[in-house]
Fold each of these.
Amino acid sequence: MKTEKLEAKLESFELVSPSPDFAKKIAQLLSMKKQQQRLISWNWGLAFFLVVSMGFNYWQLESTLFKNAILQKKVHVNQEEPTKDDRYISVEYGVSASGINQLNSIQVWRTDQ
Amino acid sequence: MRLKKLGKIFEKYQKGLFALAISITKNRALAEDVIHDALIAVADVKGEPANLKNYFFQTVKNKAIHSTKYNQKLSQLEEDYVVTCAPLAENQLLFSRIKVVIKLLPSQQQQVLIMKLFGGLKFKEIAEIIDRPINTVTSQYRRGLQFLQERLNEN
């Protein structure tokens, strides 16, 4: 069989076509992927919003707390034995607000007596 | 954005994509599955490929090779990639012989022959699909056809 004849004969064959609904299936797949991506974008947006909102709430809470907090400083001079000469000075310092009451104290003694 | 581009590529090159997939899988259902899977893979790939069209074709090719090997391990696939306009007994006999001879060719020559002879694609289109120079495609086709002719004349 000559080449031209063979070629002509072979060209009478055709590749099968894709199924009739193949293009439709691909279109559906593309639209599904688009929806998925949109959903993912929304989820990222929501996550970002939550993080920002949490950060803002924390800042707001902290600033409210410290705005209402009272800076305390108390000085006691020889409170335990007022009749005697000054033996020590006691200083209390700290912050107090609703939920927080953190006071520290130091005492300084006179040692020259 | 990429999905929109992929949709356009699919619409424009549907014939070429299918011809490439079926020239490797030699089975219609498998070729369709391959394109489907390749589309998902390309849609989900991280980073933007430099040339989306070439990347899509390359993915189809790789998926087709992989799934053909995988399916051949599982079961012998029925080869249903060609139809004839005139279902004469002579044509059927010729085609059954061609199927056997084509399998003896290197895989790329098989692809070129199938796409050119049965898919009706031009050399330029085939070169674009398989990403080879047009001269390589032409010579592969000539060699493949010559081999086919020799083997058919032997019998």
Amino acid sequence: MKPDNGNKELHEILNQWSVNPDHREKIIREINAGDALLDSFDRERPGPQPQLLARIQQRINAHLADSAALRPRKRRILLPLTAAAAVIIAAALVSIWVNRPSPPTGESAAPAMLAQSADITEQELGLWELAALQDETDDVINNVALIEAIASS
Amino acid sequence: MEQKLLAKMIRRCQKGQSEAFAWLLQQYGPDLYAYFLRTSGSRTDAEDLLQDLFVKLLLKIRQYKHEYRFKNWLFRVAANLVRDRFRDRGHRSAVQSIDSDWLEGSRPMATGAAPVLSPVQQLQKSELLDQLQHALGKLPDQQREIILLRHYGGLSFKQLAEHFDIPLNTALAQVHRGLKKLRRLMSENET
């Protein structure tokens, strides 16, 4: 017994190596003679006892029966586990959605939002902040004037 | 063996059908047993290995892809099993006189009407088989494994090189040297 493509492969390999033709023939002859020697013993080699084969078949059957019995049990355990995992994941997603940070609003966000805009320049941003500061200063001045007016009345 | 039938049986094994495993055991069991017997040199080891292989096959067969030749794949699994067993044990089983009682304990592989042998012929035959086992035992471990895997598993030189992680020329040289040495040892015994 030898590989189906035994000699073909052997020839191919030896051709690739550019082995001297005499040497190549010698290698092939010696390998074939070795194969023939092993083949001659195969005709009368010992085979497995029928009891051994029967024992192996019993083990295979027992193993297959165990696996078959295990499958519904696994399903019984895995189904509730999968359902529980799905509920936990859904709850976590709802929680993330509820606690998501609210988007920035109003004046405080304006400079930042404007800064993100590709159109606005640094200078324009500076003017915006200056205007905001001016508004605040005006408020303070107005408030002081109001308090003074109340006080003087 | 018809390839369509083999592919069908493998698919049935992959589905866990007992009869398909029985078929595989019948088809490949004798070759595998002979391989294990020659590799381990022990009848007990060969029996254990054959059982272990089929138990392993129950799980491994799902990994088999039909692009490889099944017999080659099966024997590579078998070779790994042998390697693991002797690595765990720390040494290779001594090559024993395994064939001296095979006529009593086993059935011969040859099919058809086996010739009835006289006691003297039986003795001569078992002596020859013993000599072969001893000659195999004298080969370096890897050389013996390569020769037996090629002989029983039908692995090509390329597959042997892959399996043993050696260059192609080394695989070929190992087969060549091993077989040559085997013949020399057997002819020395005859003289």
